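Repro case for the chain-ordering regression, as requested:
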Amino acid sequence: NAGVTQTPKFQVLKTGQSMTLQCAQDMNHEYMSWYRQDPGMGLRLIHYSVGAGITDQGEVPNGYNVSRSTTEDFPLRLLSAAPSQTSVYFCASSYGFVRDSPLHFGNGTRLTVT
Amino acid sequence: GENVEQHPSTLSVQEGDSAVIKCTYSDSASNYFPWYKQELGKGPQLIIDIRSNVGEKKDQRIAVTLNKTAKHFSLHITETQPEDSAVYFCAASRTGANNLFFGTGTRLTVIP
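-- result from build under test --
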């Protein structure tokens, strides 16, 4: 099993550009989420989904958009990149509520916005 | 929302010594406390977790303790080895929640 796969691994954007971070899981997990990791701030939840067609906001949703058309895929869109979005982004999935089943993380996408 | 504080931010120990990382949480409704290990260039990986109905849980060289009254929990690693070097994150959540609230991380270095 591949687990959670994120692409690309690295990306450099100019301010105002848009892009999509891809995330796919092959574990048939209903729950998927996006976190960003910044130095000294741990991981913070951006958006999450509890199943196909259902998404909701996390702690830091501004500037990001998501959709969930299939169980396997959960892309994260930056509509107009800003330097404050420079971060490492992690996609994670789990079978159910995070209290009841462990989160499985991808290996991250390092994004730099200049 | 929940606020999780983690200390220390960096920790260096000699191989074979023990390491302790401490976290506090603010939301008394939190009842699930996992610990994640993140190796360089990788995503975090769950290493142990504890629920609020127990005070301690062990898995070989790692253990987690929970004090609900004081709202703090700790990770203990005994007989540390160089491969234990990584960043460790504590987190908290509660029944029915869809997210984990993470601490700010501890970079553990085990010196051979």
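Ordering looks correct now. The two ends of chain A are 36 Å apart (CA to CA).
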